[in-house]
Specification:
With 79 residues, this protein is mainly α. It has 3 helices and no strands. Helix 1 packs across helix 3 and helix 2 packs antiparallel against helix 3.
């Protein structure tokens, strides 16, 4: 097993833990709370909140991105 395979498989194993599921739930709740324009009163708040939402979106997509990259790597190796 090479380092890249070990990297992906370790992350995929992490994604199955209850701790990871709780972490994703917390991220989703934070995202849901920030993904609204309702409480924005000025441009500084808007830009700060926009940055927070973008970071949360990336974190929420992390598992799917790693899974897709691992599958792509596996497909390339089987050719």
């Amino acid at each position: 097993m090479d380092n890249l395979t070990e990297y992906y498989e370790s992350l995929l194993e992490t994604f199955t833990t209850s701790g990871w599921k709780m972490f994703e739930k917390d991220l989703q709740e934070a995202f849901d709370g920030l993904n609204t324009l309702q409480n924005i009163t000025d441009s500084e708040t808007f830009w700060r909140q926009k940055g927070q939402v973008e970071i949360l979106q990336r974190m929420l997509a992390y598992r799917d991105g790693i899974t897709a990259a691992y599958e792509e790597m596996q497909d390339a190796e089987s050719v």
